Amino acid sequence: MIPDPQGTARGMAPLTGQEPFFIVWNQGSGRNDAELVRSTIQKVLDEAGRTYELIAVDDGAKLPDIARRAVEAARARGGVVVACGGDGTLNAVARAVLGSGVPFGILPQGTFNYFGRAYGIPQDTEIATRGLIGAHLEPVQVGLLNGQAFLVNASLGLYPQLLEDREAYKQRYGRSRLVALWSAIVTLLRGGHRRLALHLDSGEVQGVIRTPTLVVGNNALQLRQIGIPQAEELERGKLMAMTAKPVGSLALYGLLLRGLLSRLGEAENVISFPFESMTVRLGKRRRRGIKVAMDGEICWMQAPLEFRVSPEPLMMLVPAEEHRVEVA
């Protein structure tokens, strides 16, 4: 998206630099020490003379309700809602903010931080908090799956299973990219991956495909890092569908390796295409719901699945140049 230096996109008034921050902080997410995160946020904002309310959440199930209350408070006081936590936390708070007319900020704490890194926002709490000060508003595209927002990606089939197993490994061995990689290898080694019969209809692309997984991406940084060549389509108001032809476990290892080497788009077994909206219907044998993942959070949904770009973006606080970090 093209930055709006005046912060007036979609009719929203420019920031004054005095808006109070309502920070919804999931203490249980991320790898950082909770007390250090708290003291760092307080130190930076106190030194800047900014008004803020740090709302700590110790139960992820309470996040949606607390996020809605934060939005109400921000709307009443002309403030900004800030999500502090991993991908799931950012997603939960973004859903509450979307369509509210309230600006959205983030203090990312997740393992990969694709959403934050796309806008130069690091996991380092001090740098990210300083970035809130003097930030400008920028419209950020959001994807929808059956009306539910996602920031990075949404998926079904093998990919949600990889995420579910990864979370179990993180609980046991800690949060790191190495643990995430090892978990993926073990999941593929276990085998037994079901092939889904999916009927896709995106207008330009129609037909039935048998595949172990379908991933819909909304983050150009992630797409570029795994080697999908059409990442720039996201900047044209589209989402990116990625799926694989039916292959064995050995070929899935090859696809994983290509993704790590940023060459997934070169694989003959991978199909990718951009779209604005797409309906996915399941095979006749699947009468119950299907497991899906949105920004790493697992849930069940009933088909058909409707993917589309949200007609309204998030108005996000993007740091000034001196507080942005280089994407690695």
Can you walk me through this structure?
The protein has 328 residues and is of the alpha+beta class. The chain has 2 domains: 120 residues, Probable inorganic polyphosphate/atp-NAD kinase, domain 1 (Rossmann fold, 3-Layer(aba) Sandwich); 161 residues, Tumour Suppressor Smad4, CATH 2.60.200.40. Helices cover 31% and strands 29% of the residues. The protein contains 9 helices and 18 strands. The strands form 4 sheets. Strands 7-6-17-14-9-10 form a 6-stranded antiparallel β-sheet. α7 runs antiparallel to α9. The longest helix is centred in the middle third of the chain and has 16 residues. The N terminus is likely disordered.
List keywords for this structure.
disordered N terminus; globular; alpha+beta; Tumour Suppressor Smad4; 328 residues; single chain; six-stranded antiparallel β-sheet; Rossmann fold; Diacylglycerol_kinase_cat_dom
